Amino acid sequence: xxxxxxxxxxxxxxxxxxxxxxxxxxxxxxxxxxxxxxxxxxxxxxxxxxxxxxxxxxxxxxxxxxxxxxxxxxxxxxxxxxxxxxxxxxxxxxxxxxxxxxxxxxxxxxxxxxxxxxxxxxxxxxxxxxxxxxxxxxxxxxxxxxxxxxxxxxxxxxxxxxxxxxxxxxxxxxxxx
Length: 177
Fold this sequence. Notes:
The chain is of the alpha+beta class and 177 residues long. 20% of the residues lie in helices and 42% in strands.
C-alpha cells in the first residue's frame, strides 16, 4: 500500500531546509568521475559524483546530470556514455571537466583518451571505466536521472588511490584503507 501525505511547508522553511540538505549532502562522500559521450554532436564530458550502482543483473548505473551542464543534451542525444572513475592524482582533470569556462577541447586536452565500443571517450588512466547505453531517463528537480546499462567495464592494471568529494573539497582515499 502506498500512502503519500504532503504537508504544506512555508517558503522560508523550505529555503532553510534546502540549505541544510546541501550541507548534509556535502558530508556524503562521493567518488569523483568524468562522464563522457561522443556522437553526432561531438565529444562532451563533465565531472560527476552523483553516480551509483543500481543492479548487477543486468549491470546498471544511475547517473544524475544537472540540466544546466553543457553536456546534458548531448548525452541524451547520443544515447551512450562512459563513467571514468578518477584516481587521487587526477584532481586537475576533474576541475577542468567541472569548469564552465573551459571548452570541450580544452577539457579533453589534459589526458589521454581512446574510443570505446560505444564510441564514448575512455580515460586511459581511469581506475575503472563503465561503458553504457542510456536505457531510461527520469526528470527530477534540476537534474535528469539516467539509468544506464553497462556494456563493458575496463579496470586499471594497477590500483591507485581513489579520489572522492567530501565536505566540498577533494580527498584522496588510499588503496590500503
